[in-house]
Amino acid sequence: MNSFNKTRIEKATMSSKKTLILNKEQIHQKSKRIAYQIIEDNFDESSIVLVGLADRGYVFAERLQKLLKEIAPEKNYELIKVTVQKTKRSLEAITDVPVETAKNKVIILIDDVLNSGRTLAYGLGVFLNVPLKRMRTAVLIDRSHHQFPVFSDYYGLKLSTILKEHVEVVLEEFDKQEDAAYLS
Question: pTM for the complete prediction?
Answer without folding.
Answer: 0.88
